[in-house]
């Protein structure tokens, strides 16, 4: 068993008694009380556990906890301050892109990363950025609408107001 | 289980020498699945994630020394000109999330016949830089794959890098799957034209117990291109020759029926991919030959 120290959503965190073969996803959900990242396929196929690890989106289920030692992790819980919604989150609600909701956290993190890198994505860019996130409810059309909406709103917002 | 976290390459080699059973952990995209599902419980994991030099590449003159841990995202973004076949292959890997973690070292270490990098490495003619505390050896890619998920590494060796000659001509890569992302190849094909040596090299994935080259097809096509003086003239590959090349590529497969496809489908699809990638690559070669002539 080992101890893992990392920064999650801007806060220094520590997890004890971590099994050496354990995933970052398990640490987040079961040891740090952050169940937003979802545990679905456990093999990197579905993207429901997508988090940012040192700035880039990864499947938390495929990162060994020990590999995240000293790293910066941003989960869906870190996209906006407590009780608020980020532009991307608000757009998912407004566009009706959330049905059962299980895939939503991963899609939000992936979409947020896309818009940070590419503020005006073409549809093909959106499809590629979200190609590692499976949704079995929506058929993706509302999700596409939500990302387009978020992009438009973020471009309209003054820089400093962006959540 | 023990989690070994060497901070540097020498330390990693020392750890692997002391514990040859330690399982290297790079991008985790294969190994973590096995751990999550309880299919594997190694005594020790050897995390290579902290070793900075594995995440870098160097280009010296004619070749690229690509660190084993350079993620696919960076290969597809930064090495399109030097290693076009591998850059194309990298773009077909799974999803952005996976491409941010996985790299060529892990693909080679796992040595699955379906690994996306293998056909491109075979076609380019790569060498695997295998290192242990005893020293370094360069394993030609043709000698690297020994069986399904078996490779030529000794128990105390780690993959430091692959060395790949900088492309001297067009390279292509194509993969068959049920969608454009998140698929394990039903089959895949890499093709590289090497105008400097007037040769063609191929790589076939997911259609034999290991990744393989279609050597007979390469020799046949090389002969035709030479006889017809195609390299100099940039003229079209005779259609009958392209068809026969495709047939020989299909014949180089020894596929199986599995959940992703049947053996017959794979053989047929490899032939189609061979013909298409040859067409694309040769068109590009003719274009560049014409451009050179025009400039002269």
UniProtKB/TrEMBL annotation, chain B:
Keywords: FAD, Flavoprotein, Oxidoreductase. Residues 1-169 form the FAD-binding PCMH-type domain. Gene3D superfamilies: 3.30.465.10, CO dehydrogenase flavoprotein, C-terminal domain, Uridine Diphospho-n-acetylenolpyruvylglucosamine Reductase, domain 2. Signal peptide: none annotated. It comes from the Bacteria. SUPFAM superfamilies: CO dehydrogenase flavoprotein C-terminal domain-like, FAD-binding/transporter-associated domain-like. PROSITE patterns: FAD_PCMH. The keyword Flavoprotein applies. PANTHER family: XANTHINE DEHYDROGENASE SUBUNIT C-RELATED. This is Xanthine dehydrogenase family protein subunit M. It comes from Streptomyces fragilis.
